[in-house]
Amino acid sequence: MAKKELQPSLKTSHIPAGTSWIGYNLSRMKSQRQLMWMSFPFIAFIAIFAYGPLWGWLMAFQNYRPGIGFMEQDWVGVDHFRTLFTDPTFLRVIRNTLAMSLISLFLGFVGSIGLALLLNELRMILFKRVVQTVSYLPHFLSWIIVTGIVANVLSTETGIVNVLLTKLGLIDAPINFFAEPKYFWGIVGLSSMWKEIGWGTIIYLAAMASINPSLYEAASIDGAGRFRKMFNVTLPSIKPTIIILLIINVGNVLNAGFEIQYLLGNGLVQDVSETIDIFVLKYGINLGNYSLATAAGIFKSVVSLVLIFIANGIAKSLGEERLI
Amino acid sequence: MMKKDVRKRIKYSALLALILVIALAGCTPGSSSKGETTADGRELKQFSAFFAVPGKIAPDDNRVLKAIEEKTGVRVTMDWLTGQTAKERIGVLIAGGEYPDFIDGSDGTQQLVAAGALVPLEDYIDKYPNIKNYLGEDWKKMKNTTDGHIYFIPQFGNIQEKSMKVTHDGEAFWIQKAVLEWDNYPTIKTLDQYFDLIERYKAAHPTVDGQPTIGFEIISYDWRYFALENPPLFMAGYPNEGAAIVDKETLTAKNYNTIPEAKAYFKKINEAYHQGLVDNETFTANYDQYISKISTGRVLGMVDQGWQFLDAEASLVKQKLYDKTYVPLSITLSEDVKGRYQNNPILNVNGGLAITKSCEDIEGALQYINDLLDPEIEVLRTWGQEGVDYQVDDKGVFSRNEEQRANSKDPDWVLANTGSPLVYFPHHEGMTADGKNALDPKEQPEEYLATLNDIDKKVLKAYGYTKFTDFLEPAEENEPWFPIYTYNFEPNKPETIARQKMDDVKRKWLPKVIMTSPAEFDKAWEEYQATLKESADIKAYEDALTEEVRRRMELWG
Fold first, then answer.
1. Residues of chain B neighbouring A155 (CB-CB closer than 8 A)
2. Taking the model in full, what pTM does it have?
3. Cα–Cα separations (whole angstroms), residue B109 to B134, B140, B224, B422
4. Is the ipTM of this complex over 0.90?
């Protein structure tokens, strides 16, 4: 593959005899100066918008109050981190965030890949297009609308789920889904699966489109049926795509979850519905305690970074494509 | 060849320069039309204002705003909150360091004060007789608790002559007019009588328009959950202080979640819940679902602030379901406890209109506020223009005709024609300066009567009342510290964290104790109380509020 051909040229052993390492790299930079210039705006963008704001992290070590000079603030060391990790609520919201993210991640992956596999087998192009369009439309709805739909669908009086279950005789009385903590994670997982399934499918379908048809032909000659081909040709071919997406998404595990939990949650289920972001909103921003909010943000970034490295490391040890 | 190249280059550079100039011109502040004059040739002053509440921007040619512009020589461009919370938007303003001339920071007011964005006003006010007059005795209440400055002028609750209130928009137990009529207009005073009436009516009318009747609703969605948690203070006969109840003798603030009345109240609600009188979705429904349920006319009663379900009542009126609209009731645990659901309007000293340090003409801005408080302009702000929006008879009493009334009910017409957006500038309520008319046309007795429908008139007549506020005991004199909920909870203080923790516990446990089976109630209540004590520093909370009560007594009492 292309990657393999590029790699040796990066190694110092390929420096022509008689040139120093620095001299070699300088001449390379010169020969690729157009590329260097083209990348400059993006490096500047990252520096200004991604690395620049990092100095605001210092806020986590102060009792920050707006309107006073940054260096005149009152420095408190790691007090805010100590508050976070001794607060039972914070430990609970970490659990909730992780649980709901992993459920959504799992359902999202299984759902999107499954739908992509099925769509890929379809021969009726018109039907395939309609299914694809219908399934990715919810992606464009905002959560406030989606949660409104979810609330109506699950309502005890007119909700279609309760009406169906009662009519089919599966339950005696309508279930109040939002009053029972045990249903909440499932509702969140299924709602986000419904919203994002079609959108997630697009990238897998694209990956499937690039599979060499001769592989399928060869499989057919060997006597493979539809499902054999799915498992032995399609899935292995899109494995690199799956792994890259998985690594990217693992980094977002602690970020997933504010709107849906905030909009669907209520007092009765708050023990399982509150995520780190809701905690930050309640105890940080609403109480004017920006430093605590920043401390929680730092914690999230650090954990996300660790998770990415772990996922990447696993991918590496399995000899798969990886991000870093 | 060479020459052509150079020419091309010059041409492109010129073009680029031109684009840059145009782009930059668009960004220059003050590019708005300056130097406009009023009809009598004075230069028109321009100010900007931002109100951190949702609102609509009135068109520039709004008739009454134009007339006020002519009189004051000032034009104000007003901006409102859209799609963000006040705190977020104010945070952005602070980060940018550029403010509009006038600002009402709403929930973000303390942030503005802390950031030093507001101009202290105390040294200016003496020069403006209308403002000085307007603030009157309340002057001393407005000093900032930390630095003693006065940063803003409150706009709401300043009564001139006397209050003309005709409708109750605060908290109460509400009941449908149809229910009262069915039971031959009973007098309902206690919680037991209230639920008994609902139970009997519901048994007699199991459905409304084919859908099941709902006995009682308590909205508990998000920040709107106060009606779930605060009835105990009314049950015990205290006014709506919000955060705590205050003992008049000892001047101590007490958390009302632990008092015996709280237990008695929630026990009764628990009972009603298991009789099927309380909607079983009431703790999980969102605000839209709540409003849509009330709008069907099948909800018999609820405990809530009147302003929370205005949309639902408007919808009922639109459907001509007049008998499904509501009457406020003053409910307590026993007949000898007097309900204090009404209170005299209070000047909300927690916020108001401020002038920012970005304002270049502070005196001009204050002069504008002063002019707006002029009796003549105040009438213009609420009633509109004489002869166009209202008539005056020979005794000086204002009235509207049918067409003018219809216009004033149409929000689009109001936005295009009258000065209503100025409501966020300081103004009086109650009566006009000459004491002849109500300042708010809706509160003018004749106008109020004209808006009543037959059902309303029938209900009022049956009880011998003239207005719906008569259903509640008249307001008593406010205590000097009232209301304690305006206490400024500062970040990082134990009382602030305690308040949030208490909120969290109540949000979970109150629905839980109500839904638990009646036999288990006592046990669940014990557990709730224990959790409350364990997770929140209630003592720090009570101490902070007690200190504030005593401080206010000293300063304002």
1. 281, 289
2. 0.79
3. 21, 19, 21, 19
4. no
